[in-house]
Amino acid sequence: MERVAYLIRRTVEMILVVLVVAVLNFTLIHLAPGDVAVYMAGVEAGPEYVASIRHEYGLDLSLYVQMGRYMSRLLHGDFGRSFTRGEAVVDVIMNRMPATLLLMGSSLILGAVLGTLGGALAARHIGSKVDYWISGLCVAAYSTPVFWLGLILIYAFSVHLNWFPSSGMMSFLEEQRGIADTLRHMALPVLSLTVYFIGQNIKVARAGVAEAMQDDFITTFRAVGFKEREVFLKHGLRNALLPIVSMTGLQFTQLTAGAVLTETVFSWPGMGQLVFQAVLSRDYPVIMGGYVLMSIMVVLFTLLVDFIYVVLDPRIELK
After folding, report:
1. Phi, psi of 282 (to 5 degrees)
2. Lesser CB count within 10 Å: N end or C end of the chain?
3. What's the total number of domains in the chain?
């Protein structure tokens, strides 16, 4: 019953958060300078044609009326239609969603696994040269801008060495497409995102493992004769996983912003590139729909992290 009550409360909170995000997005986008009707009609279009476009899309109404209509449609699951594509926003975004989830999921998993292993290795040899090298690489990794690293990777591994494609998700020729081809296209964008998250996770894992190995129960295990390797793997590392789970939840929110830069640099056909193109073309429904769906993904992932916490440590209660 406690978990059911917790789930109901969190669901209500998530709905409120998404609605607040939707209101803020709508307000900020419509207060931005420029007239989307003029952009759609063309700078040489006459005032009558511009007025007809403004009336067709309801842009001649007051901001409050437009917001009321948008929120009403949003509550019914209608994100509107794209100004430039003429398609339903949900269909446009869902066509791009798999590519973004593939990129984000791969980066999060690799960043968490490799970062945890690197941090655990540094904590195991704390104060040694191994620790210094890993810590130094950690600082360099999370200090490097994602877009700059992406450009460097393209120059080094695509332009200079010609090992990996520089853009897209698959080859132009259909006979060349397949899992191996997709993995080759994924390599550079996933690496550019993963490096940043590895740096963060190494720092968190190193601190968590080092602190866990100093706890009293670890000293007790050593005293009764448990091997150091067994104590480290089964107890020290397990207790250090909770900060990594928490960090992964925070990284997911960062990843939604990082995906825009990475997908733009590598021409990856995902939501990030879609939103960037929508901003350039002033496609308001796509911009707002993209950010609302991103906020839904973030709150759902946050809820998932809470339940993973309980699985890893049953002592934690959902309240």
Report:
1. 55, 40
2. N
3. 1
For residue 167, tell me if it sits in a domain. yes
Predicted confidence (pLDDT) per residue in 275-300, tens digit: 888 887 778 888 888 888 888 887 88
Q: Write out pLDDT tens, residues 97-118.
A: 888 888 888 888 888 888 888 8
Provide the token pair at 6: 């917790």
CB contact at 8 A, 187 and 110: no
Predicted model pTM: 0.75
Q: Which two tokens stand for residue 109?
A: 């998993």
The CATH number linked to 140 is 1.10.3720.10
- Cβ–Cβ contacts within 10 Å for residue 249, how many? 19
Going by pLDDT thresholds of 50, 70 and 90, the confidence category of residue 318 is low
Residue 77 is given by DSSP the state: T
Q: Give CA–CA dist 306/246, Å, rounded.
A: 9
Residue 136 falls inside a structural domain: yes
With a cut of 80, say whether residue 96 has pLDDT above it: yes
Q: Would 145 be classed as within a structural domain?
A: yes
DSSP letter for 174, please. G
Domain that holds residue 244: 102-283
- Burial (Cβ within 10 Å: 0-12, 13-18, ≥19) of residue 12: exposed
Max CA separation in the chain (angstroms) = 87
307 occurs within a structural domain: no
3-state helix, strand, coil in the chain (%, to 5): 75, 0, 20
Distance CA 168, CA 182 (A): 9
